[in-house]
Design brief:
Shape: globular
CATH topology of the largest domain: Rossmann fold
CATH superfamily of the largest domain: Vaccinia Virus protein VP39
Largest sheet: 8 strands, mixed
CATH class of the largest domain: Alpha Beta
Number of domains: 2
CATH architecture of the largest domain: 3-Layer(aba) Sandwich
Bound molecules: S-adenosylmethionine
Oligomer: single chain
Order of helices and strands: EHEEEHEHEEEEEEHEHEH
Length: 280
């Protein structure tokens, strides 16, 4: 269902789009219904201190979940409860996780959003990464998609690729069609709709998009999310913004953006990315 731009954000003074702050604090300051779309890519609870050395700089953030899965849930769930509150009726929440925590978090989010508002378990297949000898190589993350209200949420189907029309009949204009009991069935010219399995490459080590922040996500991933679940002028928020991928992509797509990160290095990088985009 396609919803209109409706949020309380226009009445708030969200002048500083990126804050160096715990998202719990930022969320507490936001009015109910302020955000049209929220994407989060929180720490995964890998137990590692994420580190990336770029030139003479080391960029890092701590992903060592304390207290195991219970500690991770105790950290994330109160924040997701607040995200539910600040989401507009037409809004959606995307929660990006992996095999370590996603199953626990899915059940807990159902309690907050209502299981009926769960729309998709998106598989982001990225192929790169280490090999495994004792199990199948783990080459995907999972992104949970919830609507605040499935009767009102914004959603624009995405089309990509081509239908398999080999061997089919063609009409007078050369367009392929299927013959059905009710007549000819034509194919959409923009291709089939995208499903919940997304084959989007991870940023390569030489990608020009790279800003040297560990766990930086590709803009192509965020572009798909933002185009599908928001309209121009909407407020797109990322409360674990890292290097600011969501914010720069939203801004490039003429959405407003809001984000925060605990790590001053992340905020510095994200702010520089946003400023560079705005200076273009
Ligand atoms: C997986 S990274 C996000 C990467 C980001 N999607 C990108 O493309 O660069 C998770 C981020 O969450 C931040 N973080 C951890 N706890 C936080 C909290 N309580 N509030 C805000 N940010 C937090 C970390 O500093 C880290 O930058």
């Amino acid at each position: 269902m396609s919803g209109s731009t409706s949020s309380a954000a226009s009445s708030t003074s969200l002048t500083d789009p990126i804050s160096c702050i715990d998202c719990k604090t930022l969320l507490g300051t936001l009015p109910t219904g302020a955000c049209d779309l929220i994407y989060i890519d929180p720490p995964f609870g890998t137990g590692q201190a994420r580190k990336l050395v770029s030139g003479d700089q080391t960029r890092a953030y701590d992903d060592s979940a304390r207290g195991g899965i219970d500690g991770f849930m105790a950290f994330l769930m109160p924040r997701i409860e607040q995200m539910h509150r600040v989401l507009a009726t037409t809004g959606s929440l995307y929660v990006h996780l992996d095999w370590r925590t996603v199953h626990y978090i899915k059940v807990a989010i159902d309690d907050i959003f209502g299981a009926g508002n769960f729309l998709n378990e998106i598989t982001w297949s990225y192929r790169t990464g280490g090999r495994a000898r004792r199990w199948f190589g783990r080459k995907h993350d999972t992104i949970l998609l919830y609507a605040k209200d499935t009767n009102a949420h914004t959603f624009h189907p995405t089309r990509q690729g081509e239908f398999r029309t080999q061997g089919m009949n063609h009409d007078e204009q050369g367009r392929p069609y299927k013959t059905t009991r009710s007549g000819r069935l034509y194919f959409h010219p923009d291709g089939p709709t995208v499903t919940d399995v997304w084959d989007i490459p991870f940023l390569s080590t030489v990608s020009s998009e790279r800003v040297g922040y560990p766990t930086q996500k590709p803009e192509a991933l965020l572009e798909r999310i933002i185009k599908a679940s928001s309209n121009e002028g909407d407020l797109v928020a990322d409360f674990f913004c890292g290097s600011g991928t969501t914010l720069v992509t939203a801004s490039r797509l003429d959405r407003r953006c809001l984000g925060c990160d605990l790590n001053p290095q992340a905020v510095e990088i994200a702010t520089a990315r946003l400023n560079a985009l705005r200076a273009r």
